[in-house]
C-alpha cells in the first residue's frame, strides 16, 4: 500500500476538494461506490484502498499522490530542481541569496514531510552559513541534516558529517575535526560501504586539519587515497576540491610543479562549473605556493585576486584568512606598515572561535613586525597571544615555530630561563612528527 496520510486527514481532504468542485457525494461516488461510502470516508471512519483513491482522484481531477498525501503533483521533482538552482547560486558566491532560497525550500519540504529534500536544504543552509563565516549556525544546520537522515545509510550522511568536521576545523578544533572524519572513514571502510564520492569527500577534507596539526604522513596518505579514488567519482566539483586539497600535501613535500599542476586542474574545473568561491580558493593556494617558492610578485597578484573575489561575495572568514597570507607576502616585500594595517583590519573578523590558526598567524606576523621595529614588549604580547591560540587548536607545526621565535626574543632580552621554557614547549610539540593523538589511522579503502 502506498505511503499516505491517516484516514481522517484524507477524509477532510476529499470533502474539501468535493465541495470546491460543487459535487455531491453521489456524483463523486458513482458508478463504483455509494454515497454512504463517501460519507463514511469523509468522516475518517474508513481507510480507503488504493483503488478507491484512484477513482476519487480521477473524479476530483487531482493526482493520486496529492489525494493520498496532500503533496501537490510533482512537488518533490520541483523542489529538487529549485535545490539545484540554490546550489548554483551558492556556487557563484551569492551566499545570502542562496540562504534565502534554501530557507524557502526547507519550509516547503517540512510542510509536506519530504525528508531527503529537507536534509538537502539544511545542508545548503549549512554551506551558506560557513561561507558567510557563521560557524555556529553552520554546525547547527549540519547537525539537523544529520538527524534528519539518521535512518539513511552512512554514505548519505557523509556530507552532513563532513560539514560538522569542517566547522570544527575552522573554529580551531583540529583534533575533534580529525576524529569526526577518521571515525566516519573507519566505519565506511570496515563495513564495506565503498562509496567513492563519500570516501573522496572525507579524505580531501582531512588533508587541511592534518597539515595544520603537523600530521604530514597522514595528510600524504589521505592525498594518495583521494587521487586513487578520483577516477571512480562522477562529480567534477568534488574532483576539483580533491585536487586543491592534494596540492597542499605536494607543497609540503616540496613538489611545487605537481602542486601547481593540481591547482591548475582544479581551477579549470571550477571555471567550467562557474564555482566562483572555490576558484577564489585556487587563487589563494596558488598565491601560497608562489610565496613558498619565493615568487613574491606572483604570490601577491594571486592573493589579491582571491581576496577581491571573496570580499565581493562577502565571504568574511575566508577573505580574512587570505588577507593574513597577503600580509605575509607584503612584509616579505618590504611593505611592513601596509602588512600591519591589513592584519589589524582583519583581526576583528577572526579569533579563537573562528579561524584560530590564521588569527595566530596574524599575531605571529605582527610580533615579527614589532620586533623588527624594536618594540619587544608589543612583539612578546603578540607571540603570547598566538601561542595561546595554537595550543588550543593543536597546530603542532606552527606552535613549534612560534616557540622558537618567542624563545629567541626572551633570550635576547636576558630572560634565559623563560626562553628555555619556550624552547622546551616547542620541542614537546615536535616529538611525534606525522602522527596525531587519535590512535591508529582509519582502515584503508579497498582500492
UniProtKB/TrEMBL annotation:
Record Gene3D superfamilies: lambda repressor-like DNA-binding domains, Tetratricopeptide repeat domain
Record key words, sorted: Coiled coil
PANTHER family: HTH-TYPE TRANSCRIPTIONAL REGULATOR RV0890C-RELATED, REGULATOR-RELATED
Species the sequence originates in: Streptomyces cynarae
This protein's name: Tetratricopeptide repeat protein
Composition skew (Low complexity), residue ranges: 431-441
Pfam families xref list: HTH_31, TPR_16
Region listing for Disordered, in residue ranges: 427-447
Record-annotated HTH cro/C1-type domain positions: 14-67
Top-level division of the source organism's lineage: Bacteria
Coiled-coil intervals, chain numbering: 256-316
CDD domains in the record: HTH_XRE (cd00093)
Amino acid at each position: 500500500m502506498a505511503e499516505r496520510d491517516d484516514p481522517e486527514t484524507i477524509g477532510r481532504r476529499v470533502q474539501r476538494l468535493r465541495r470546491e468542485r460543487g459535487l455531491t457525494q453521489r456524483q463523486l461516488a458513482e458508478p463504483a461506490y455509494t454515497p454512504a461510502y463517501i460519507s463514511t470516508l469523509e468522516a475518517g471512519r474508513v481507510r480507503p484502498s488504493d483503488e478507491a483513491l484512484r477513482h476519487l482522484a480521477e473524479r476530483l481531477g487531482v493526482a493520486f499522490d496529492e489525494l493520498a498525501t496532500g503533496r501537490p503533483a510533482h512537488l518533490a521533482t520541483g523542489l529538487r530542481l529549485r535545490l539545484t538552482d540554490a546550489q548554483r547560486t551558492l556556487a557563484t558566491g551569492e551566499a545570502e541569496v542562496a540562504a534565502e532560497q534554501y530557507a524557502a525550500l526547507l519550509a516547503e519540504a517540512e510542510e509536506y514531510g519530504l525528508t531527503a529534500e529537507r536534509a538537502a536544504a539544511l545542508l545548503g543552509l549549512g554551506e551558506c552559513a560557513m561561507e558567510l563565516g557563521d560557524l555556529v549556525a553552520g554546525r547547527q544546520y549540519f547537525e539537523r541534516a544529520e538527524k534528519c537522515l539518521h535512518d539513511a545509510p552512512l554514505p548519505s550522511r557523509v556530507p552532513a558529517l563532513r560539514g560538522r568536521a569542517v566547522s570544527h576545523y575552522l573554529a580551531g578544533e583540529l583534533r575533534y575535526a580529525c576524529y569526526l572524519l577518521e571515525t566516519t572513514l573507519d566505519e565506511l571502510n570496515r563495513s564495506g560501504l565503498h562509496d567513492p564520492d563519500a570516501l573522496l569527500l572525507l579524505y580531501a577534507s582531512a588533508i587541511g586539519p592534518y597539515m595544520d596539526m603537523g600530521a604530514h604522513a597522514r595528510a600524504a596518505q589521505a592525498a594518495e587515497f583521494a587521487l586513487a579514488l578520483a577516477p571512480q567519482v562522477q562529480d567534477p566539483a568534488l574532483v576539483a576540491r580533491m585536487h586543491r586539497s592534494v596540492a597542499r600535501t605536494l607543497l609540503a613535500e616540496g613538489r611545487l610543479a605537481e602542486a601547481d599542476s593540481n591547482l591548475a586542474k582544479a581551477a579549470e574545473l571550477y571555471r567550467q562549473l562557474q564555482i566562483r568561491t572555490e576558484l577564489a580558493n585556487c587563487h589563494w593556494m596558488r598565491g601560497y605556493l608562489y610565496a613558498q617558492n619565493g615568487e613574491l610578485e606572483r604570490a601577491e597578484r594571486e592573493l589579491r585576486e582571491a581576496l577581491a573575489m571573496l570580499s565581493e561575495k562577502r565571504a568574511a572568514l575566508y577573505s580574512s584568512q587570505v588577507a593574513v597570507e597577503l600580509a605575509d607576502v607584503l612584509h616579505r616585500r618590504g611593505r611592513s606598515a601596509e602588512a600591519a594595517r591589513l592584519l589589524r583590519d582583519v583581526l576583528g573578523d577572526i579569533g579563537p572561535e573562528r579561524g584560530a590558526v590564521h588569527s595566530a598567524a596574524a599575531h605571529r606576523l605582527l610580533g615579527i613586525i614589532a620586533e623588527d621595529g624594536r618594540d619587544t614588549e608589543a612583539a612578546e604580547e603578540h607571540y603570547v597571544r598566538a601561542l595561546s591560540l595554537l595550543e588550543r587548536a593543536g597546530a603542532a607545526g606552527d606552535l613549534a615555530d612560534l616557540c622558537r621565535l618567542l624563545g629567541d626574543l626572551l633570550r635576547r632580552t636576558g630572560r634565559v630561563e623563560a626562553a628555555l621554557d619556550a624552547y622546551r614547549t616547542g620541542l614537546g610539540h615536535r616529538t611525534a612528527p606525522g602522527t596525531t593523538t587519535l590512535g591508529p589511522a582509519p582502515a584503508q579503502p579497498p582500492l
